[in-house]
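Hi R.,

Here's the chain you asked about this morning:
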Amino acid sequence: MLSDLLDDDRFFFSPWLRGQQMPAVNIKETEKNYEIDLAAPGYTKKDFKIDVDSGMLTISAEKKEESEKTEENFQRKEFSCTSFSRSFNLPENTSEEDIHARYEDGILKLRIAKKPEQQQKPKKPIAIE
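And here is the predicted structure, written out as tokens:
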């Protein structure tokens, strides 16, 4: 199941993002969860957008900054914009309703709960009448 998150062929990158630096991601599977740590220093939690749609988890962020400097003979105005987007196919055993995220020390941390395993019912013999 973890291979669904790690399989490069399943990552969805928009064509305009090709060649841009993508944030590093660590993915860990535990007994009850999948944990994703995404390195994104310099952002704030309000810069992130996280969506789940039909088994596709998308993490994106955009940060805009402007500065202006005015002196006697000139005025300089600069702005920058950085953004990224990463998408992952969630394994079928995940619960889209139970995803938690927090941003701390430059790392966006997501915890995706696994669905409880359904125990198989024992075979039931059927009598022929």
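One quick note: The CA atoms of residues 12 and 24 lie 15 Å apart.

Cheers,
M.
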